[in-house]
Amino acid sequence: xxxxxxxxxxxxxxxxxxxxxxxxxxxxxxxxxxxxxxxxxxxxxxxxxxxxxxxxxxxxxxxxxxxxxxxxxxxxxxxxxxxxxxxxxxxxxxxxxxxxxxxxxxxxxxxxxxxxxxxxxxxxxxxxxxxxxxxxxxxxxxxxxxxxxxxxxxxxxxxxxxxxxxxxxxxxxxxxxxxxxxxxxxxxxxxxxxxxxxxxxxxxxxxxxxxxxxxxxxxxxxxxxxxxxxxxxxxxxxxxxxxxxxxxxxxxxxxxxxxx
Length: 260
Ligand SMILES: COc1ccc(-n2nnc3cnc(N[C@@H]4CCN(c5ccncc5)C4)nc32)cc1
Fold this sequence. Notes:
The chain is of the alpha+beta class and 260 residues long. Helices cover 36% and strands 19% of the residues. The protein has nine helices and eight strands. A five-stranded antiparallel beta sheet has the order 1-2-3-5-4, with helices on one face. A three-stranded antiparallel beta sheet has the order 6-7-8. The longest helix has 20 residues, at 110-129.
């Protein structure tokens, strides 16, 4: 459409919790952009996605990846009632690389690490001052232009808080930390070991024990609820809103009294 640039030279960048991410050149600006496709599974996802977009569009800062525009399918602008959309496309500035890729080539010189980390803190100070949490900060979500040693925080997560919430519920129900052992391993294990552990998530190392075995004293419905929150793959994890409508909360559930 005339409002949005025509995107050419599309290249895959990755698949995140929210869906596919491509890079493309916006013919209008001749700039390369990162385009995140958010598939709208249901009205809840749309509401969540729109809220996330509203927050991230507001955050203008040198150390935060900026959102250029949000488009409906076929590059059309958002309709007045976006809840009927099948997908949302978030077009944002595209940085040269991310910190995870950079670190694959080994540690950074101290001077570079210091300047980059300073920018990370500068970006976090801004984000937190806006009362926004990133919730999924990791090297893959930190983007860098190596020519200017410029760092920007991007790709605000949606899922991570739910894992934490699941662990908290388990602790509420048992009085003990659910992954105490594992989290101890996390603290002591070096990042490299942890990344190795995480990378073999389907092997015996992180064997998935049924929660009923881990939490014998917890009632079956609570265990079923925990199973759906503490799913390893964030794509399958319940969102806060979906969790609120799980039978486990039917005695309290009241969507109109659970404002967003
Ligand atoms: C889940 O996957 C995702 C999720 C979010 C992004 N986001 N979100 N905002 C971004 C701003 N800039 C970039 N830049 C790319 C980083 C690596 N890039 C290469 C470019 C060329 N070759 C290899 C990597 C460009 N990526 C962004 C990318 C992939």
